[in-house]
């Protein structure tokens, strides 16, 4: 695959997109924190069993993810528009709405279910282990509340970063296709300890808009990629917008 000749322009775009992604991540993390705290507060000992209100948690997370996607799409478009003035395109508002609707339809419910199932599994494991040790439900419920609060610290930022990056990656890719861009470039912007060699090796790689990069992904944070390719990845895909 060819390396782009105009990397300076691509790095400028990557920096703008990364900054936009960072702003959304910071705001969204607080809302995800609130969803986990709400889940912790819902845990109660009824005397005979332990109740956990996952329905409220899932509803709260869905609202938060929908907002994540909306803010990510908006921030992405604003970042690109500052450089390339893409909002002058005819029917631009319809393009923007279509991108957001498409992403939410494909990924919001699926993502909420994955987060909920993972959290439920962790909670059920604690309940089973503690009950087998003869610990009473009141003590287990107290531990669960503390454990879920602890999850907030370890999971909220990861979820916020991952979902913001996925929405940003998807929206930029769709925007590029809608605005007749025919080339895209992979930019490795660094992750320190989380650098992936297969991502580092394709830094600056340029391919046609409808082709995958040599690592098999259509864009950085491809929504169909496995967790190993997206969790704590800081790469950006940039596009040669020519309006």
**Order of adjacent strands in the largest pleated sheet:** 1-5-4-6
Low-confidence sequence ranges: none
Which structural category do the helix and sheet elements fall into?
alpha+beta
- Beta fraction: 5-15%
The arrangement of helices and strands along the chain is EHEEHHHEHEHE
Inertia-based shape: elongated
Query: What separation lies between the terminal Cα atoms?
Result: 25 Å
Q: Could you estimate the helical fraction of the residues in percent?
A: 55-70%
Number of helices: 6
- Sheet bearing the most strands, described? 4 strands, antiparallel
What does this structure look like?
- The chain is an alpha+beta fold and 243 residues long.
- It contains 6 helices and 6 strands.
- The strands form 2 sheets. Strands 1-5-4-6 form a 4-stranded antiparallel β-sheet. Strands 2-3 form a two-stranded antiparallel ribbon.
- A hairpin with a 4-residue loop joins strand 2 and strand 3.
- It starts with a strand and ends with a strand.
Give a quick set of tags describing it.
elongated; four-stranded antiparallel β-sheet; two-stranded antiparallel sheet
Q: How are the elements arranged and paired?
A:
Layout lengths: L1 E2 L3 H36 L1 E2 L4 E2 L2 H31 L7 H41 L4 H42 L4 E5 L9 H4 L4 E4 L18 H4 L5 E4 L4
Antiparallel strand pairs: 1-5, 2-3, 4-5, 4-6
Condensed summary:
This protein has 243 residues and is an alpha+beta fold. It has six helices and six strands.
